[in-house]
Design goal:
EC number: 6.1.1.2
Shape: elongated
Order of helices and strands: EEEEHEHEHHHHEHHEHHHHH
Helix content: 40-55%
InterPro entries: aa-tRNA-synth_I_CS, aa-tRNA-synth_Ic, Rossmann-like_a/b/a_fold, Trp-tRNA-ligase, Trp-tRNA-ligase_bac-type, Trp-tRNA_synthetase
Radius of gyration: 22 Å
Mean pLDDT: 82
Oligomer: single chain
Number of strands: 8
Largest sheet: 4 strands, mixed
GO cellular component, one term: mitochondrion
Low-confidence stretches: 1-74
Main location: mitochondrion
GO molecular function: ATP binding; tryptophan-tRNA ligase activity
Number of helices: 13
Strand content: 5-15%
Length: 417
């Protein structure tokens, strides 16, 4: 049966939207343990070490922000739910800055992870690209280390309860709350105001459904996602007040709260990888030039060409933390991470190098680091039946949990069930 305690992913909402697909939405995690067997690449970093709660303001409430947490083996693990946009392409900045840390969550929490294809249609999109990107994104995350013996992986639209809960929550959502959402105001303006789709206004309710459906304990969340989490918390409290407690009990329910109020989980900060063409700007999928980023599936020759042509400077030697040399600091930092060396070791090795000597060294280190991911990705995509099985089993497991939530809410709302 479904367990009552859950943890979130939108635990972390990761922005990785492609130009061909809409909505630079979020990635939030949703993971659940699975009986399937899948060996990840062996990343051993633990995610959160010591509890360090912070207080952050909410629109109507306050929540505790957990920057780290360690679950006792004798206690049932908390649940984390996370969703990510179907981009089909992930770059080095996404991977080193967030995904490696996300993957580490599965060692501490019960986790569910899904591809948010329903969020990807709020802006104009290519249907064929959406279908392909959904599968490719799932395969990439598995290749990056998501372990299906620890985490459930599925596609959002394969669990009907996401849409069901969104509709039920919509009846309790004041339209004024949605009109105040920053992303709606920005994106509807870009779409020409009245030409913006209704889904662009209401998708935060779907995101709240993604979070509340699995009784998440924590939500990994980035700066740009705090407002969405606040909405989910406000909606949960509103529905609990409207339909929970004695009202629910009179209708044959257990009484008490219908939804758990999720807390934010701020992941350990990953590397901030900058553009190869501008050391002061983050590496981004939305940058017009592909030369500005290294994609996880770039070939060895393409990686070598991008690093060879990347922006550098005319200073002698290499050094960290010089404000006048942002590209130098960025490239040394990338080399440090992918090589597994310390900052001091890199500085000692590279301080007297020229760019002509350092760039081939960096190329070899990046290629070696990405090679296992690329090999595993090719294995997964070559075996279509395997990926289908993983996604089907993940959706089945998520549905078991989700149906309990839907049944409880329908009962509390007075539906004949």
């Amino acid at each position: 049966g479904a367990r009552d305690s859950l943890s979130l992913p939108h635990p972390l909402f990761l922005q990785v939207s492609p130009p061909s697909l809409p909505h630079s939405s979020n990635a939030y995690s949703i993971f659940d343990s699975s009986a399937s067997r899948f060996s990840r690449l062996g990343y051993s970093t633990r995610f959160l070490r010591h509890p360090n709660p912070l207080s952050l303001p909410l629109t109507r409430q306050r929540f505790r922000c957990y920057c780290s947490d360690q679950t006792s083996p004798s206690v049932s693990r908390k649940r984390v739910v996370s969703g990510v946009q179907p981009t089909g392409s992930i770059h080095l900045g996404n991977y080193l800055g967030a995904i490696k840390n996300w993957v580490a969550l599965q060692d501490t929490y019960e986790t569910l992870f899904f591809i948010v294809d329903l969020h990807a249609i709020t802006l104009p999109y290519d249907p064929q690209e959406l279908r392909k990107a959904t599968r490719d994104t799932a395969a990439l995350y598995l290749a990056c280390g998501v372990d299906i013996s620890k985490a459930s992986v599925f596609v959002q639209s394969h669990v009907r309860a996401h849409v069901d809960l969104m509709w039920l929550l919509s009846s309790s959502t004041p339209i004024g709350w949605l009109q105040k959402m920053t992303q709606f105001k920005e994106k509807s303006r870009k779409e020409g105001g009245e030409n913006a789709s209704v889904s662009l206004l209401t998708y935060p309710v779907l995101m709240a459904a993604d979070i509340l459906l699995y009784k998440s304990d924590f939500v990994p969340v980035g700066e740009d996602q705090k407002q969405h989490l606040e909405l989910a918390r406000d909606l949960a409290q509103r529905v609990n007040n409207l339909y929970g407690g004695r009202k629910w009990k009179k209708l044959g329910g257990r009484g008490g709260s219908i939804f758990k109020i999720p807390e934010p989980l701020i992941p350990q900060v990953g590397a901030r990888v900058m553009s190869l063409t501008d050391g002061r700007s983050k590496m981004s999928k939305s940058a017009p030039s592909d030369q500005s980023r290294i994609n996880l599936l770039d070939s060895k020759d393409l990686i070598a060409d991008k690093i060879k042509r990347c922006k550098t400077d005319s200073f002698v030697g290499l050094e960290y933390d010089n404000a006048e040399r942002p590209e130098c600091n960025n490239l040394l930092s990338v080399y440090q991470i992918v090589s597994g060396k310390t900052k001091d070791e890199v500085m000692e090795e590279c301080k007297d190098m020229s760019w002509g000597t350092f760039k081939p060294l960096l190329t070899d280190a990046v290629v070696e680091h990405l090679s296992p991911i690329q090999v595993r990705y090719q294995e997964i995509t070559a075996e279509s039946a395997y990926l289908d099985k993983v996604l089907t089993e993940g959706a089945d497991k998520a549905t078991e949990i989700a149906e309990v939530t839907i049944r409880n809410l329908k009962q509390a709302m007075g539906f004949y069930i």
